[in-house]
Design goal:
Layout (H helix, E strand, L loop, with lengths): L17 H8 L7 E2 L13 H7 L13 H11 L6 E4 L2 H11 L4 E6 L3 H9 L3 E6 L11 H7 L5 E5 L11 H14 L2 E5 L21 E6 L12 E4 L2 H11 L6 H12 L7 H16 L4 E2 L6 E5 L5 H10 L2 E2 L1 E2 L10 E5 L3 H14 L2
Parallel strand pairs: 1-11, 3-4, 3-5, 5-6, 6-7
Antiparallel strand pairs: 2-8, 7-8, 9-10, 10-13, 12-13
Helix pairs in contact: 2-9, 3-9, 4-5, 4-8, 10-12
Length: 362
């Protein structure tokens, strides 16, 4: 096994920090394999680059002030009024402006969860509390979680479906009950569906028309492997969207991001087979990880993996120095040292991971 005292490198705490890794490792970004960012392992749709590049000359002008073309195409896709949709440069933007609007009451975060919910509420000077799914339940959300959430009498509830970092879907009956409670008790329910396209679950977007307290976050970043374009939208009641527009301001999307949105909604069939395709690669990843620890079942395009707390830092460093990034999950509320999150990646990258793990444990 490699020497654990070998010169340690400072590794970014969050996933997707490939440019920082490139600088630290003094290597080209295309020589780095990134298991820390949960993107579509099959990459971008064919011809997306060609289509976006063909629109490059449009950047000589300011983009649409309210991204109207994207709003129209999304509203048409869902057959809903345009007033329900708010575009944005990634869902993180929406999370932060929601944090500002909801900062005057207690927010419950269903965890383990993406850290930006907490960060956004903190930035606005708001208060929050975590209600975590339990490890003894393999982090699956069970009906008992509802009573725990409501005991805090929250103004808002933040959750992801499927959850990040566990990759688990919340049972439909629990989601529906939370949505009903939210409407009855006038509590905002914010549901982040960033990874739902990798599952067979149905989106809650259609319910927004009849539930003014339901907010759904939709990211195109992960599904279409375009994190650098920053492309997302929020779905909520027209009154809330109007208030959020004031926080968001003009020109929420670049001209190139708008052209990508046009292309994506013209070729939505790209994702039809995605859950089954990802499941095959996920099976290989899970089998590899099971040789060295405990990978948990996942409905998404990533796997939460319990490894030796004593050896985890050494392993992360070893993989990092070999230009392979994994996500240290200990800073997710509800997790501890030893938890790692790995994205589902293409077969050739899974082979590299398997070889490095074998060498490390030899």
């Amino acid at each position: 096994m490699p020497d654990k005292n070998d010169n340690s490198l400072e590794i970014p705490a969050h996933g997707g920090r490939i440019f920082e890794a490139s600088e630290t490792l003094k290597t080209n970004i295309f020589k780095i394999i990134d298991f820390s960012a949960n993107l579509n392992p099959f990459g971008q749709p064919k011809k997306l680059k060609e289509y976006v590049c063909s629109e490059f000359l449009s950047t000589i002008h300011y983009p649409e002030e309210k991204a109207q073309s994207m709003v129209s195409i999304i509203a048409n896709f869902y057959d809903m009024p345009e007033e329900h949709f708010l575009p944005g440069a990634g869902s993180t933007v929406h999370i932060y402006i929601l944090g500002r609007l909801l900062a005057d009451g207690l927010c419950v975060i269903l965890g383990p969860a993406f850290s930006e919910y907490e960060a956004a509420i903190n930035a606005a000077g708001g208060k929050y509390v975590y209600v975590n799914a339990e490890e003894e339940d393999h982090f699956r959300v069970t009906p008992k979680i509802i009573a725990k959430i409501m005991a805090h009498k929250p103004q808002a509830i933040f959750l992801a479906n499927p959850a990040n970092p566990t990759g688990l879907l919340i049972p439909e009956n629990i989601l529906n009950e939370l949505a009903t409670i939210a409407l009855d008790q006038k509590i905002y329910l914010v549901v982040d569906e960033a990874f739902i396209d990798f599952t067979t679950a149905q989106s809650l977007v259609p319910l927004v028309e009849t539930n003014e307290y339901l907010v759904v976050l939709k990211s195109l970043t992960k599904t279409y492997a375009i994190p650098g374009l920053r492309l997302a939208y929020l779905v909520a009641s027209p009154s809330l969207v109007e208030r959020l527009w004031i926080q968001l301001g003009p020109w929420p999307l670049s001209a190139l991001a708008l052209s990508a949105a046009d292309f994506i909604f013209l070729f939505e069939q790209y994702i039809d087979q995605l859950p089954n395709q990802v499941a095959a690669l996920k099976k290989t990843l899970t089998q590899t990880l099971s040789l060295y620890g405990q990978p948990l079942p996942s409905d998404a395009n990533f796997v939460l993996f319990k490894y030796s707390p004593e050896k985890v830092d050494q392993l992360i460093q070893y993989l990092y120095k070999n230009c392979l990034l994994v996500r240290d999950a200990r800073n997710f509320n509800g997790l501890s040292r030893g938890w790692l999150r790995l994205a589902v990646r293409p077969q050739k990258e899974l082979i590299v991971l398997a070889k490095l793990l074998e060498k490390f444990h030899a």
